[in-house]
């Protein structure tokens, strides 16, 4: 028996840094990743798809988002089983019970809205642990597995949340206990655990039967999500489970940490940014450190301005950026200005070197603008 394991679609997600047409393109890519599961399922011969929670970003969605999401699910063409998670729990405002969702839900889509066993077909069952609030006070998985006995069926657990061996908050009441999963697997009550919540592809434990699929499209930077963009092709037979990750994501959120102290460093950064492919689907966050002259800082700004127009987004990670700008001796002596203007430049140089933090930054910015207007800071 073969199926697709996916999770954390979070349809309707927005990223605050995406502006212009980047946000609509990102949203479309998330829907395309969902609709594209149909082609993958046809390629590998999958019977059905399980979505292990957080199908939607939250429960308060626009009619357009709900309608477009359901159309993407319809395009998959085989049965799709949706588990409510912490982003879209089955509470009083649940999207799954809204008039629009219930009226337009495609026939191939089933909401796992009841804890316990759901039959896929004779001999194949899903054991579901849906969320009914954003903060469960118990281990929902332990509850559905507690009295589950082995039978002449193949069972797939579909659950959402952190596993205790991976979560730093070991006292969280909703944590899934790996020992509970391993025990259920060992006694044959379930044969595979399809988990959601972690957005990176993650194997849990040593059994090879407990996995997070991760989100099929990236949702955060690579220091948070190390390996997003996958769907799992899962084969379960009487004696073994085989899990094959398949990459489906097309966007990247990249963090770079360059040291920039000289014009050569800026040129190297320019080359590195230029070599990144698919810029319109790439978000770049820069944590810059170094000490620059005003001339070099102006050249850096010109470089960043250029690539900000090419990437889906490019900007500084302010918390991790530490750039010091110090005017070099003689840096402003050949601008061809004199009199009052020259005196003003000298005052700005002095402030940039010795003024308080706020005044120095303002003076550095003014000097950099002066150089760029004089065409000495062009990249």
TrEMBL record:
UniProt GO MF annotations: exonuclease activity
Domain of life of the organism encoding this protein: Bacteria
Keywords: Exonuclease, Hydrolase, Nuclease
Chain ranges of the Calcineurin-like phosphoesterase domain: 1-172
Recorded family membership: Belongs to the SbcD family.
PANTHER family named in the record: COMPONENT OF ATP-DEPENDENT DSDNA EXONUCLEASE (PTHR30337), NUCLEASE SBCCD SUBUNIT D (PTHR30337:SF0)
Protein's name according to its UniProt entry: Nuclease SbcCD subunit D
Source species of the chain: Mycobacterium heidelbergense
């Amino acid at each position: 028996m073969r199926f697709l394991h996916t999770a954390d679609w979070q349809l309707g997600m927005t990223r605050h840094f995406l502006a212009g047409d980047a946000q609509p393109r990102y949203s479309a890519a998330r829907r395309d990743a969902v609709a594209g599961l149909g082609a993958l399922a046809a390629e590998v011969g999958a019977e059905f798809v399980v979505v292990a929670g957080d199908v939607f970003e939250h429960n308060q969605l626009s009619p357009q988002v709900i309608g477009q999401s359901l159309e993407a699910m319809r395009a998959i063409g085989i049965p799709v089983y949706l588990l409510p998670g912490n982003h879209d729990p089955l509470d009083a405002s649940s999207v799954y019970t809204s008039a629009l969702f219930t009226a337009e839900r495609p026939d191939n889509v089933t909401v796992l809205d009841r804890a316990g066993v759901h039959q896929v077909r004779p001999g194949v069952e899903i054991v579901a642990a849906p969320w009914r609030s954003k903060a469960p006070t118990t281990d929902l998985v332990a509850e559905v597995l507690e009295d589950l006995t082995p039978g002449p069926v193949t069972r797939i657990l579909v659950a959402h949340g952190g596993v205790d061996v991976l979560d730093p908050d070991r006292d969280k009441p909703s944590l899934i206990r790996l020992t509970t999963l391993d025990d259920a697997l060992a006694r044959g009550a379930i044969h595979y655990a399809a988990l959601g919540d972690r957005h990176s592809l993650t194997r849990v434990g040593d059994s090879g039967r407990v996995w997070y699929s991760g989100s099929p499209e990236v949702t955060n930077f690579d220091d948070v999500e190390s390996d997003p963009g996958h769907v799992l092709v899962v084969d379960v037979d009487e004696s073994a489970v085989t899990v094959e990750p398949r990459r489906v994501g097309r966007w990247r959120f990249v963090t770079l940490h360059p040291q920039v102290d000289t014009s050569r460093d800026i040129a190297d950064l320019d080359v590195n940014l230029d070599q990144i492919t698919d810029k319109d689907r790439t978000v770049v966050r820069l944590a810059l450190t170094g000490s620059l002259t005003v001339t070099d800082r102006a050249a850096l700004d010109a470089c960043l301005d250029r690539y900000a127009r090419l990437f889906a987004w490019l900007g500084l990670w302010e918390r991790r950026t530490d750039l010091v700008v110090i005017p070099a001796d003689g840096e402003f002596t050949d601008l061809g200005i004199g009199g009052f203007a020259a005196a003003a430049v000298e005052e700005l140089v002095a402030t940039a070197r010795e003024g308080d933090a706020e005044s120095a930054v303002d003076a550095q910015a003014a000097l950099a603008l002066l150089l760029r207007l004089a065409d000495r800071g062009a990249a």
